[in-house]
Design brief:
- The chain is an alpha+beta fold and 154 residues long.
- Helices cover 44% and strands 18% of the residues.
- Strands 6-5-7 form a three-stranded mixed sheet, with no helix packed on it. It has a two-stranded antiparallel ribbon with strand order 1-2. A two-stranded antiparallel ribbon has the order 3-4.
- Pfam families: FUR.
- It comes from Dorea ammoniilytica.
- Keywords: DNA-binding, Repressor, Transcription, Transcription regulation, Zinc.
């Protein structure tokens, strides 16, 4: 689902941020590559196509600002790279991250959007008084393609 430039401008203004080309381009790249889990360098390469004078340091500063404003999420997929994705806005608040399925054979990362932990979060709050704001969950295994390859080799 693509988000329009006007929606990005509105989000930035609501967060008290100045609307700049760099911020808009970073948000657009992330929105256009949803579920790709991009590094700052990946984002830089794509932004540079439309805005060749931009520097990598500007991308890092922009990502940090957007992260602080909860417009993007930072993800560590245990591959030595920090990755970013556009945040999911729900009623002006960041809703739960989707979960990640990580193939240990080929390294593919698949999103899993169903959040099945709502009951657990309610139970935690009832039993401890601790209010869960967010969580992150990663499942490690084999994707169906790698699983099929392994079965075919047997």
């Amino acid at each position: 689902m693509a988000i329009s430039q006007e929606e990005f401008k509105k989000l930035l203004k609501e967060k008290g941020l100045k609307v700049t080309n760099q911020r808009l381009l970073v948000l657009e790249v992330l929105a256009d590559h949803r579920d790709t889990h991009m590094t700052a360098e990946d984002i830089y390469d794509l932004v540079k196509e439309d805005y060749p004078e931009i520097g990598l340091a500007t991308i890092y500063r922009t990502l940090q600002l957007l992260l602080n404003m909860q417009l993007v999420d930072r993800i560590n997929l245990d591959d030595g790279c920090i990755r970013y994705e556009i945040g999911d806005q729900l009623n002006g608040e960041l809703k739960h991250h989707h979960h990640h399925l990580i193939c240990k054979t080929c390294g593919k990362v698949l999103p899993f959007r169903h959040d099945l932990l709502d009951d657990l979060e309610r139970q935690i709050e009832e039993e401890t008084g601790f209010h869960v704001l967010d969580h992150e969950l990663k499942f490690y295994g084999q994707c169906k393609e790698c699983l099929k390859k392994d079965q075919d080799q047997m």
